[in-house]
Amino acid sequence: MQREIFEEEHDQFRASVGRWIDKELVPHSAEWETDGIVPREVFTSAGKNGFLGMDVPEAYGGGGVSDFRYNLVFGEELHARGLGGVGLGMLLHNDICMPYFLTYCTEEQKQRWLPGLVSGELIAALGMTEPGIGSDLASMTTTAIRDGDNYVVNGAKTFITNGINADLVITAVKTDPSQRHKGMSLLILERGMEGFERGRNLEKIGQHAQDTAELFFTDVQVPASNLLGPNEGDGFIQLVHNLPQERLSIAVASVAAVRAALGWTLDYVKERTAFGQPIGSFQNSRFVLAEIATELEIAQSFVDRCVIGLNDHTLTAEEAAMAKWWCSEFQKRAVDRCLQLHGGYGYMLEYPIARAYVDARFTTIYGGTTEIMKEIIGRSLGL
Ligand SMILES: Cc1cc2nc3c(=O)[nH]c(=O)nc-3n(C[C@H](O)[C@H](O)[C@H](O)COP(=O)(O)OP(=O)(O)OC[C@H]3O[C@@H](n4cnc5c(N)ncnc54)[C@H](O)[C@@H]3O)c2cc1C
User: Fold this and answer.
1) pLDDT tens string 24-59
2) How far is CA 121 from each of CA 31, 47, 98, 124, rounded to the nearest angstrom?
3) Using CA of residue 72, residue 76, residue 78, residue 79, what is the dihedral sign?
4) Partner residues linked to 47 by β-bridges
5) What number of other Cβ atoms are within 10 A of residue 369's Cβ?
6) CB atoms inside a 10 Å sphere around CB 356
7) Mutation test of ligand 1: which of 95, 135, 207, 358 has the most ligand atoms closer than 8 Å to its C-beta?
């Protein structure tokens, strides 16, 4: 179906993103998958080309256009080339972390951090999950206790995307450990602060080019001027405010990943033969691919509508949760079915469908699990 949400500028942006990915990322992606990380120069190159902080005001070096369609195009073009793992850190930096800096920073903080975030010299991460808690965020135990002009931070985070590369970690802390939601605040921890250590770059089943790490904080002295927002205790509200964009970003990526998988599979089933005929001509293959193509159109329409809602500030938390759980579960299901149609070659990493399969598995977990998304939607139904 013709997608109705784009204007000429988005098409031009798409062409420019595509050229950059083909030149700067595609030739190196296999090496980065082996390294378990993308080099920092990828971020500075993206920054130089205007692909970071498109929504940051020009005064801080950004694109000055608040329009999530640019973020969507960037994510789609990465996934079209099977580079979900290579691109995840940049998508997190742009779609998930940047809104915290834009919405909650004071003027002084904006001047300190935004230019570097736009140029890619500063890489961002979001630290919410801890070894002992993920979904139940209000039970987190990392503390930040005020001591004069500083907070003293103790605790640990895990599964943090960009965990090794990050210079600025938006860290969820308890400034009042006696409280649950109301005791939470967001504090920026910076590379080099004494007592802020990185753990292992965790070994994962997929997303191999992405550095996902543990972070440890032991008596880290963080200036009180690194608090996000004017008040202690606002952290949970700040997180809830930004989650719809985070979840929509994941849904966008999931739909784009299915589109790529469908394309590779269509090519494969037209070429591969069995019993004297292309495997695509078996009724089962046609039905599987017809079902995926149908669901893809339906998912795309919903996600595109949500993107317009996000731009208009009308997207609700429940709608974003619907997009996130359904599209990520669709990705998991559809990529699995596409792999099956590749037979044994589908299990070989030289075929992009194999990497897409292992890369897909985390999408129903991070950014809030499918079960938590259904809790959010269920509550909105008065249940
Ligand atoms: C590759 C990757 C990257 C990640 N990146 C980041 C990051 O950058 N920053 C960050 O902070 N975190 C990150 N995470 C962590 C991710 O957000 C958490 O794993 C996720 O929120 C789930 O938390 P958990 O792992 O503690 O699972 P748990 O909360 O322990 O849940 C385990 C199971 O119980 C279910 N469950 C829990 N509560 C309920 C309930 N009330 N009702 C029904 N079922 C329930 C869950 O749905 C799940 O199936 C990442 C994770 C992965 C895998």
Assistant:
1) 999 999 999 999 999 999 999 999 999 999 999 999
2) 22, 8, 14, 10
3) positive
4) none
5) 16
6) 26
7) 135
**C-alpha span between 133 and 118 (Å, rounded):** 32
Q: Take atom 12 of ligand 1 and give the residue whose Cα is closest.
A: 129
Give the tokens for residue 175.
């400034």
User: What is the rounded CA–CA span in Å between residue 52 and residue 63?
Assistant: 8
Which alpha helices (DSSP H) does the chain contain, by range?
Answer: 8-20, 29-35, 40-48, 68-80, 84-91, 98-104, 107-119, 235-271, 283-311, 317-341, 352-360, 370-380
d(CA 210, CA 213): 10
Distance 377 CA to ligand 1 centre (A): 17
Question: Which residue in 194, 337, 343, 334 sits closest to 274, CA to CA?
Answer: 343
Q: Which atom belonging to ligand 1 lies closest to the Cα atom of 136?
A: 29
Task: Kindly report the pTM of this predicted structure.
Answer: 0.97
- Give the nearest ligand 1 atom to 368 CA: 21
- 377 CB contacts (<8 Å, ≥6 apart)? 318, 321, 322, 325
Q: What is the pLDDT of residue 383?
A: 94
Q: Whole-angstrom Cα distance, residue 69 to residue 75?
A: 10
